[in-house]
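Reviewer 2 asked us to include a model.

Predict the structure of this chain.
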Amino acid sequence: MTAQVDYLAVLFTTTSGASGDLLGSDEKELVQLVWQLVDVKNKKLGKLNEVLIGAEQSELTECAPDRQDGEESVFTVTGLEQALNQFHVGLTNEVNSLGAGTSLCVCTDGQLHIRQVLHPEAASKNLALPNCLNSFFDLRKEFRKHFPSADTKSLSVQSMAESLSVTVKPEGTLEPPAMLAPTAVMDPTAMLAPVTATLQVQSMANIVLALLSEPFCHSFLNPERVPEKFESGTCSKTEQVCDNTVIRARGLPWQSSDQDIARFFRGLNIAKGGAALCLNAQGRRNGEALVRFINEEHRDMALQRHKHHMGNRYIEVYKATGEDFLKIAGGTSSEVALFLSREDQVIVRMRGLPFTATPDQVLAFFSQGEGPKEACPVSGGKEGILFVRFPDGRPTGDAFVLFASEEHAQCALRKHKNILGKRYIELFKSTAAEVQQVLNRYSSVPLIPVAPAPLVSMLPTVSLLPSPGGVRDCLRLRGLPYTATIEDILGFLGEYTHDIRPHGVHMVLNQQGRPSGDCFIQMRSAERAFSASQRLHKQVMSGPGQGGQRGVASRYVEVFSCSAEEMGLVLMGGSLSHTHPRARSGTGLSPPPCLSPPSYSFPPAHSIMPAEAAGIFPPIGQVLLSPRPLGPGHTYYPASAQLYMNYTAYYPSPPGSPSTLGYYPSPSHLPSPGGVVRMHGLAYKDLLNTIQGYQYATEDGLVHSHDPSRTLLSQPKEWLCI
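Predicted model (structure tokens):
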């Protein structure tokens, strides 16, 4: 808007909660809407209008009973929608009755009335605001053009009125003038009285007239604008992003999109492509997002929405940095930039594609259907498909597809889990930032990196694990529902529950400490483990349902027999990939991932037992007081590379697998070769089970490190096996 407007509607809002600088920060609903029209050309004021919202606002209606006269109109409505209609109709009728022009814009005291009250509440209630509320003038910023030394944040209607020598005579007999002193200090955490809002509007209208008059002759040009729709776009890693414009939102629903995030921050101006959903190590959304705003002012208003609600969930909002945003949303690929350069497109992510899938097969997948409504053409044909590949060109099974409209995208999403080739395809609505993030992840460091040699090979020849090709008396369950508990697993095993060793169910957790969908079970015999794998393989584990029917978490579970060695390596961080390039020949074992970057320095090893206890065993005591630390193994990635573990924890601790373990070779002058193994957290009987089948010294070789007199305690905390 480059020309002076004909009318200004001076607007003031009141909620049932905080006021002042905290207005809208507590997510309270609007209860009062007051406005007054200003004729800019003729420098005249219209009548004062007031709308009270909510039938329960009895106190407000007592202070200002319903009436309509030449100076003031007061209405009472039951909800926000009726209040907005009353505002729009009343304002339009008043402008038409004056007939001095048609251009109209709203003017408020600061940003909060429009950005933090009206727009957020209307968005949460799925209401459309009148067009005049999508742009407004900030009276504080207009005032500051003539008083540049004034601080916008510290300005108030009272201070501006004093600077302009504006006095306000309250209209009607609402309150005694003593109660309306403009210098009165108001509590920002308390709800404003209705008379205060009307006085604020009258003061603002007179300030506008003072700015329009001599000597200021102010022109109201270029109002603030509230975007009606989030604008997607791309971001380059070389772009400079200010730290004071980025926030991190946490606790988002898993199915939320960038449009949902923009809806949550409705009223604030998000930068183009400034909503980036974060992915976890498995490439799935983790409930967090980084949002970039156009300036620090909007970022600060976003921080005030901390713990506001998106549906039934409250969202946490924290400060973030520009570097954080670029790590998620920044990209360098020209192919991705070209793919995302098409505007007004809806992106759908395909997951689980056959590695041999071609663009023609993807186009045929979306074009198939019984009727024309089931067909959803891909925008741009083959140019609208982007396959995700590893750096060496191998396909990952993921792809992104563009659709020209939301209608076509919704039609495509209805094909979720349809078959392409011999695989079912998962479909999700995606964003430009997610495309960048997925491409960046696969083009830099793989999700499960190439690992060093197995941990067991780093130790001396004495091994605590069975040799490769041992008895396959364990079960591996893969594809469990993430909500499955140990009780659900026992119910799934049925009659084989009686063959499980005590404490033999081990849930495998991912890097975030959440269930990974895998589980290991120790059985009493290899025969029962084999029988269970044959009978239960690909049987359905039902989630919560009704009447025994399959619930929303129902899925088939793969069951395999495995050995204790395979279970042990996975619980220590390895995997069971049979195609891993460094897998042991014939076993399908992949070693644990590298845990120590080259720059990591191992701390000096502390003495294992007190000096007094070490004196009882002179040869061994010196080893225990000064153990030899194990040096780092070989690494395959630089220290700056981020490594992703497929498994990092297990629960509960399996029998025979102490939580921490240390091996120390025996001194060379001992009569027989051997070593010292330090174990934490095992009772005496569990210790004997752990070392069963391995040759160890006599009873004298079992030493309680906290008992110099070598008396056996009922609940020892730490043992040394010699």
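The first strand starts at residue 7 and ends at 15. The mean pLDDT is 76. We have added this to the supplementary material.
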